Amino acid sequence: MSAPTPTPAPTAHRSLAVEPQPALSAPPPRRRRSKLPWLLIIPSLAILIAALGYPVGWQIYTSFHEYGLLQQFGQSPEFVGVQNYAALLGDPNFWVILGRSLLFCVLAATLTVFIGFLFAVLMKRVGTVFRLVLQVSMLLAWAMPVVASMTVWVWLVDWRRGLVNWLLERVGVEAAGHNWLADPGSFFVIALVIVVWMSVPFVALSIYAGLTQIPDEVLEAAAMDGASGIQRIRFIILPVIAPVISIVLLLQLIWDLRVFTQIKLLQDAGGVANETHLLGTYIYQMGVGSGDFGTASAVSILMLLITVLISWYYVRSLMKEENA
Amino acid sequence: MRLKNLSTAGWSLLALVIALAWAFPVYWMLNSAFLPNVVLQSTTPTFLPFAGSLKNFAAVFADGKFLTALGISLTVTLSTVAIALFVAFLGALAISRFRFRGRKSFILAMLLIQMLPAEGMFIAQYKMMSSVGLLNNVLGLTVLYAAAVIPFTIWMLRGFVAGVPAELEEAGMVDGLSRTQAFLRITFPLLAPGLVASGVYAFLQAWNEFTVALVVMTEDQMKTLPLWLRGFVQASATRETDWGMVMAASTMVAVPVIVFFMIVQSRMSSGLVGGAVKG
Questions:
Q1: What is chain A's mean pLDDT, rounded?
Q2: Which of A76, A252, B176, B193 is in Cβ range 3.0-4.6 Å of A109 for a Cys bridge?
Q3: Structure confidence by residue, pLDDT tens digits, A3-24
Q4: Which CATH architecture has domain A95-283?
Q5: pLDDT > 60? residue A244
Q6: CB distance from A172 to chain B under 8 Å?
Q7: Which of B14, B25, B125 is nearest residue A149 as measured by Cβ atoms?
């Protein structure tokens, strides 16, 4: 090992332009004492605080108070400490809904990411024309407004004239007049299919965008060296797109835990609401439906904590990269 | 090599089948929208709209409320896009071009805000809007929407801003441009695709949003398109559901956004990922 050279060269071109300052070395972003960055974020902060400040504060406040219909009509809420939370945690119904939501969220998110990943690999594998066809089809599903696609799905599974029952009849399944939404089990199967159908395009296209960073030559070289399809996925593709997969998985988990519109509209279309609640519709039912805002707020806060817990590891590693 | 061609053909076929299956609900909506209700009432489904007409669409238009809802939706959506884009752009600039005290907390806040369960806030948002007199008000809904899309828009845009090296700007400044000039002439044009992508994101969110609108837009003549569609479905469900009309109504809500989306889509997903992987 030769002796280290006394002065490292890399910063040379910088020292030409500026008088070299001892403390400031490599990182390009400017460390300035100006107020400019604050001026830049003030508009965002102002809008966020205006729209979310009061609601979030109210939620936290209410979750520690007795807040029912009487309070809606002006009686001042009574402080009850953690009683709302205690009542919730002691309520078996809450645990059922929580378990159901977590199960739904994990199933939907992993299925979505898995299918999305396979579709992305497929897009990479086929020629331009077929890739475009697949992409356009994904975009169609993605761009459909939720309310519109829910309406179509309700029509597809309609118990009397829906296409799904008709098809099942054709292949010999006794399905005539079967109402999918009336039974909680099949209600959630339908909900799962719809949510996955809606979410796969975003995941597939994001992962595909990540895949395009892998040069074709690398994959071809690996194939020539005898790597099988699975091996190429395992050792070349996965490592490169791992960051993309982890962020889409996280986003899906967060989004699928708080799925609301789809469940609400399916319930509207004939589901038995009481047996098909997930956390989102449960909060809505508690608050808007029964007027028990204290409990509804407590559920929201718990849900926020769960979300933070799920994403904790990811957020922490992300924040570590932000060397402010 | 022949084996390889064969397997390529197999994969292509698979891609085609998946594409058809995935787009099928969209096709089914269009198909049903053109068919008269008598045909849809039959026990055998009709797969092609040869017997079709525009009657369903005409009937939906005759309702008159569609155009009102379209107007409200367009106003709210376009103002949301304009406000969110401008404000989020400044924010993205701050976090990707500067290191300052509070930067980390700001980024953390943007992440946490996206985790807030919206369902719990409806009541509070309703109370807040009603106390400041912004219920059934386009401006009120716009502010709520802007707040909902700003965190993610900042997140997306920072990827694009970080993708333009600060050195380019510095080089311009060395060549005698002022800081503002360097930014406007060098960085800004390079950011156009990013702005388009985030604009589309904001547009889709605002155009499709259902629940917040449900809570704060209570009056009939202030309903946005998704609310109008839901009302339409519900009104129709009290009788025998006229699926032809309902699908025509869905089509009218969906088609503008699909067309818009197709025009600008290519940058969308790369932008989403860009925000995640770039500093």
A1: 82
A2: A252
A3: 333 333 333 333 333 333 444 3
A4: Orthogonal Bundle (1.10)
A5: yes
A6: no
A7: B25
